[in-house]
Each structure stands twice: as C-alpha cells, then as structure tokens.
Description:
Layout: E1 8-12, H1 18-35, H2 52-58, E2 65-72, E3 75-86, E4 97-106, H3 115-129, E5 134-137, H4 144-152
Parallel strand pairs: 4-5
Antiparallel strand pairs: 1-2, 2-3, 3-4
Amino acid sequence: MNKQAEIATIEKAKKEDYKDILNLFNELFQVLQECNPNKFRPIQEGEAALQQKDFEDSLKEGAWRNFDLYKIDGKIVAVIDYAIYDTSNYPGYIPCKLCMLGNIVVKKEYRGMGIGTKLINYLRQKCKHQNIQRFELEMEASNKAALKFYKKLGLKEARIRFAEYIN
Length: 167
C-alpha cells in the first residue's frame, strides 16, 4: 500500500454502498460471536447482519439512524453507525440531544491504523456542531480490544448492564 498516494475521506453512505457495509457488518458479527458466543452466533448463508430495508430507511431525510463511511482512495474500509435522539421525548430523562454510537467497524486489514480514532473524533465534532450534549455507546463487556480503545479515547463507564443466560 503506497501511503503517499492515499486519499482518505469520510462521507455519508449511499444506496449503492450496501454490499460493502454488509461485508463490514459480517466482520463485526464474527468478532461479536467470538466475544460472546452465548449471545451471538455466526451469520448463516442467506442471512444479513444488516437488513437492506433498514439501511435504505436510514438514507431517508430525517432518519434517526446514520451510516458514515471512511474511504481510502474511494474504497470503503470502515463504517460508523449512530443515532441522534432528543431525550425530551422520554419521560424521566433530563432533556438533551444524545448521540448513540451503534457500531464502528474497520476492515481487519486496516485495523491499528488510527481509523477508528478518526471516526470517533469525526463523530465528536459532528456532535459539537449539532449541539449534541451527550455521546454514548454500549458494548460487549468481553470485547477487551474495544474496551481498551474507548478508554484510550477518554470515554468513561457510565452504566452497567447485567445479563444471565438461562438454558
């Protein structure tokens, strides 16, 4: 890979990006299945880790879910999936605008190059420009690499979820 010639961009996903994003989500589910096999199973032939209709709905004006892509020389190498909420619509919550990170996936061969950090910082800037007061995410507790990554970025544990798997 020639570092000099690479041009990196972050842009909104388009309808024609679905298959590349689906491949990234399939990689994500492999990691999730390794981290928590009691909750996640391998994606089977004919299944989609991201439904095409859900993806296409996210492209509509005013959609709450967003997919932004990190491209190198026009090739999709990562995706960040997030939602923007107004908590004033939820009784009991202190009203604010909230950005909830759904997923961040970097192609395996591009991991360790700072792309995930760039995407999180991009999302932080986007939140500042949109006057979003809070940024949250939820993750598998057993995903040690993700835990280390988010702590390195200065994110703090804010909530704990417990689970029990009953046969």
